[in-house]
């Protein structure tokens, strides 16, 4: 984790801010975060701002850049105004915090007053991780239970079998048509057409 007591090597902080609509501004978040950094004599490495981007969006330019710089260990800490400004879901938050932990990068949320380098922050992170894992386990068990009920009720699982006109495949092959052409004409995969042809009854096509 970052060495916060060193005056020769002050903690390098990556600040992240986000607003969901273009008529909003990240300035209020940045003012709080800059003051937070200055009060602790840390060094602001860079401010990463996503403007007018929903929190549910999978790809955010500034956040993507932040994660790339984190993997290059260009800073010691990530500082955000609030969890929901940073993460799109609990799972996203946990995955990011796990990655930061492995990279030796601290994470601080200003509003929630969570600092993963402190004993309390570390404990809260452990609890969040446990809850997220429990949620995944519950969902997985529900899916398995649903599959077991479906099988017990006689439902066949998996994708339905595609009806294949074997005689038509044989006729097209006699005409010298390529497998790719046959598959496209019948709307099936090339491998499906070939397997059907190999396993067909050995009667000549009419």
Can you describe what's shown?
This protein is an alpha/beta fold. Among the domains are: 12-118, Rossmann fold; 166-198. It contains 8 helices and 5 strands, in the order βαβαβααββαααα. It has helices at 27-39, 61-71, 83-86, 90-103, 119-152, 166-174, 179-186, 190-198; strands at 12-19, 43-51, 77-80, 106-109, 114-115. It has a 5-stranded mixed beta sheet, with helices on both faces. α4 (90-103) packs across α5 (119-152) and α7 crosses α8 (190-198). The radius of gyration is 28 Å and the shape is elongated.
Taking the alpha carbons of the first and last residues, their distance comes to 76 Å
By DSSP, the count of extended strands is 5
Q: Number of helical segments?
A: 8
CATH homologous superfamily name of the domain at 12-118? Resolvase, N-terminal catalytic domain
Summed over residues and divided by their number, the pLDDT gives a mean of 83
Q: What sequence of helices (H) and strands (E) makes up the elements?
A: EHEHEHHEEHHHH
How are the strands ordered across the major sheet? 2-1-3-4-5
Shape: elongated
Strand content: 5-15%
Structural class: alpha/beta
Low-confidence stretches: none
At CATH level 3, the topology of the domain at 12-118 is: Rossmann fold
> Cα-atom Rg, whole angstroms?
28 Å
Q: From the coordinates shown, what is the CATH architecture of the domain at 12-118?
A: 3-Layer(aba) Sandwich
- Binned, the helix content reads 40-55%
Largest sheet: 5 strands, mixed
CATH top level class name of the domain at 12-118? Alpha Beta
């Amino acid at each position: 984790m970052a060495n916060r007591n060193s005056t020769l090597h002050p903690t390098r902080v990556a600040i992240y801010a986000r607003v969901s609509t273009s008529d909003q501004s990240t300035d209020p978040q940045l003012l709080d975060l800059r003051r937070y950094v200055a009060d602790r004599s840390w060094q602001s490495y860079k401010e990463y701002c996503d403007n007018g981007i929903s929190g549910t969006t999978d790809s955010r330019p500034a956040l993507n850049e932040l994660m790339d710089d984190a993997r290059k260990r260009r800073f010691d800490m990530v500082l955000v105004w609030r969890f929901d400004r940073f993460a799109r879901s609990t799972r996203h938050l946990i995955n990011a915090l796990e990655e930061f932990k492995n990279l030796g990068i601290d994470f601080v949320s200003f509003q929630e007053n969570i600092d993963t380098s402190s004993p309390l922050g570390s404990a809260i992170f452990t609890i969040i991780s446990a809850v997220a894992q429990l949620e995944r386990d519950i969902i997985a068990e529900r899916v398995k239970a649903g599959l077991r009920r479906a099988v017990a009720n006689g439902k066949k699982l998996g994708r339905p079998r595609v009806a294949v006109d074997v005689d038509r495949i044989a006729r097209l092959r006699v005409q010298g048509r390529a497998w790719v052409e046959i598959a496209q004409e019948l709307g099936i995969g090339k491998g499906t057409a070939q397997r059907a042809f190999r396993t067909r009854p050995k009667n000549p096509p009419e």
